[in-house]
Amino acid sequence: MKRIAALSLALALILGLAACGGGNAGTADTPAANSTTPAAETTAPQAEPVEVVVFAAASLEATLTEIADLYKEVAPEVTLTFNFDSSGTLRTQIIEGAVCDLFISAGQSQMNDLEAGQNEDGADFVYADTRIDFVENKVVLAVPDDNPAGIETFSDLATDKLSLLCIGNDDVPVGSYSLEILDTLGIDIAQLEADGKVTYASNVTEVANQVKEGAVDCGIIYATDAYTYELTVVDQATADMCSQVIYPAAVMKSSSGEAAEAAAQAFLDYLHTDESAIAVLEGVGFTVL
Hints:
Radius of gyration: 30 Å
CATH topology of the largest domain: D-Maltodextrin-Binding Protein, domain 2
Order of helices and strands: HHEHEHEHEEEHHEHEHEEHHE
CATH superfamily of the largest domain: Periplasmic binding protein-like II
Shape: globular
Low-confidence stretches: 1-40
CATH class of the largest domain: Alpha Beta
Largest sheet: 6 strands, mixed
CATH architecture of the largest domain: 3-Layer(aba) Sandwich
């Protein structure tokens, strides 16, 4: 009650002072009329911080990490959190409930496994209207420095030149492309296994590292990884040797919310339309579609 009475008394005093100070409205000085202080400058509201979780094929790690630094200048409120691995592993993580705002796969089948109407399991994780064919890559045969085994072509994989080949396993897109190439050339993968001439990796980065370290005679990887790891390329798969290597990308329903979905779409738009981002991608051998 004392607090209410005090407030009432203060209000009465203010009103009384206002009445005493009243005069001719036409001649009264007003702060607005006499003020020489410029109006306060208005500032644009700061965008709310948002995190975008990007699941991307291992072969995109170097380029997306570089592009992320550029994107800080465009959208400083956006924090990009990357998860790089084989597309098959990423697909499984999404199905098992991992939060993912944007998925960029190295193969169409992994994206299809997540999109309603493209799979038999009823999976529905993809906003289909956001899906695009993002970039194209090439499959190549890479060898260690000085090429000690003297391997020059894919056909050499059927000869005594080969002691050990590294490829991705069949759940990895580059592994699937590798098996296509071997099958096209009539090279029996089962016989290579029986002869102990093939070893498998869980993603393309592991294949590239095996070649870089000289642990194998050669490896089948992407042209972009050969560039990133400074590997010697001795052969490149032609269109009749394996499928076209297209990376699809899409905003996911397994996102952390509407703000993240909108920010994921904005980042995807930036990736395939901004000149700086395109320059980074094409600088390592990708073709932006």
